[in-house]
C-alpha cells in the first residue's frame, strides 16, 4: 500500500516546534506503546536539539508488558527517561513530575542557588497524531482544556496549559513526516489510527492487519473470533472472521468494508488482546 499523509499544518508545526524550543525546559514525547519505533517521528531528534526529554509509551495497557519493559530499557539514555503510561486512565502519570525533576536537577539547583524558590517547569508536548497528547494534557490539568478525539489531527495550534503541580505544558499539533521510510512503518501507523482512515483503502488495510496478526498472534485471533483455524492465505482467514460475525451481503458474499471497520476498531480498542507490533530486537519472535 502507498501510504503518506502530510497536511500543510504539519510542516508549520515542525517550524513552530523549533521556534518555541527556547521557551521550554524539557520535552515530553508521547509514543504509542504498541509501535514505539514507528510512532517516533525521525525528525524529532534534530528538532529537539538535545533538549532533556521524557518519552511516554502511551496505551501500554494494550501491549504485552514484557515487551514494553524491553522498550523502556532500550530507549532510556542519560538525557532521556522512558515511562509507560495509560493517559486515558491516568496510570503512570504520577511518575512524570519526579522524572522531570531528575532530568532538570542541575538547572533547578542553579536557580535555587540564585534565590529562586517557586520554580515553574515549562514543557513542550510532542508526538504523532492520535497518540494521546490531548488526553495526557487533560489528565495532567484535570480538566478538558485541550481538545481530544479519536481521529488524528484534532489539535491544530499550540496551547499553553497550566497544572497544579508546577508544570506548564505547551501542546502542539500531531506531526508526521513527509515520507515514511518503509511499508511496515506506514502500516503500523495506519493500523493504530495515526493516519486518517478516510485516505486509506481500509479493506486492504484490514487484510494487512490479519496477515500481521496471524503471523505473530494467531491464537489471539482464533480466540477472539472463534474461528476453527488460521488459513495460509490471510484472505481466507478474513473471510472466516466475516462469516462468524455475520458481515455478509445478499447471496452469501462478504461485506469487506463492514468487517474491515469491525476488525480495525476491535484491534485499536484492545479487544483482540494485548498486542505489541514492534520489539527492540530486529527479529520479531513468534508469539501465537
Q: What letter string, H or E per element, gives the SSE order?
A: HEHEHEHHEHEEHHHHH
Q: How far apart lie the N and C ends?
A: 25 Å
- What amount of the residues lies in strands? 5-15%
What would you say the CATH architecture of the largest domain is? Answer: 3-Layer(aba) Sandwich
Mean pLDDT: 87
- Main sheet? 6 strands, mixed
Q: Radius of gyration in whole Å, from Cα?
A: 21 Å
Q: Compute the number of helices.
A: 11
Subcellular location: Cytoplasm
Binding site for GTP: 58-61, 130-135, 174
Family: Belongs to the TRAFAC class YlqF/YawG GTPase family. MTG1 subfamily.
GO molecular function: GTP binding; GTPase activity; RNA binding
Characteristics of this structure?
elongated; 39% helix; 2 domains; 288 residues; Rossmann fold; 6-stranded mixed sheet; Conserved Hypothetical Protein Ylqf, Chain: A, domain 2; disordered C terminus; G_CP_dom; 11 helices; alpha/beta
Write the layout of secondary structure elements.
Layout lengths: L7 H13 L5 E7 L11 H5 L4 E6 L6 H11 L4 E5 L11 H8 L1 H9 L7 E7 L5 H9 L17 E4 L4 E5 L11 H9 L10 H15 L1 H8 L8 H12 L10 H13 L20
Parallel strand pairs: 1-2, 1-4, 2-3, 4-6
Antiparallel strand pairs: 5-6
Helix pairs in contact: 8-9, 8-10, 8-11
